[in-house]
Amino acid sequence: MPLSLLRAGRRPAVLLPDTVEIAGRAVPLRLNRHPLAKRLTLRLKDGGIAVTAPPRASSASVLDFVERHRGWIAARLDRAAPTLVVEPGAVLPFRGGELTLVHRPDRRGTAFQEIDGASHLVVGGGLEHFSRRVADALKRAARSDLQAAVDRHAATVGLKPKALALKDTTSRWGSCTADRRLAFSWRIVMAPPAVLDYLAAHEVAHFRQMNHGADFWALCRELCPGTPAGRAWLKANGASLHAIDFGAK
């Protein structure tokens, strides 16, 4: 901190970002300083956060205000977002492309197929089990893709994972414990493969660095040069994957 600021007892100014991360998405942030405003207020407008503030409110106080209302914002964004329902004929994102869901009640099992050059998931059995069977098929694909990526990055750092679990949480895409137990959101299989690879590299990097400091990010980029692009994709598109409705979990 500059000596002049220390002497004056002032803190460096905080710059207000153009976006804030809410539930895995980069949400635009707009500030309106109104001469008659007595307190901070916020509302959602055009898919972003609009904050009205008194003229002398600091950027730091605005960011703190947004942080304290993070849960409220996330809930309203989810409510406003169009929901893709898993049902016959729906087209899901999958491994960077599209996956058309097909129901064949006369068949047994679930299978990925190429039909007329496009990827399909053909689901047999009763309609009441359709969404669960789609989710099960995606989980199997996610485990296969994640295990391959984790094994590759783990070999680079010279340490093996103790376990790999799949979950369906909206709070985080992946996690790693101190004893190298990994957990991932299986919905990552709907993202492009490069994004899944970044996520695997991110968690494996925690084998060596249980933090998010400079050394951690350097190792993450060493494992996955596409780290910046992967992070950006999840911030911009992660919420849309969480919004896909698979019914009861």
UniProtKB/TrEMBL annotation:
Q: List the CDD domains.
A: M48_yhfN_like
Q: Which InterPro entries match?
A: UTP_pyrophosphatase-like, YgjP-like_metallopeptidase
Top-level lineage group: Bacteria
A Pfam family the protein falls into: YgjP-like
Domain named YgjP-like metallopeptidase is located at 38-236
**Listed name of the protein:** M48 family metallopeptidase
Species in which this protein is naturally found: Plantimonas leprariae
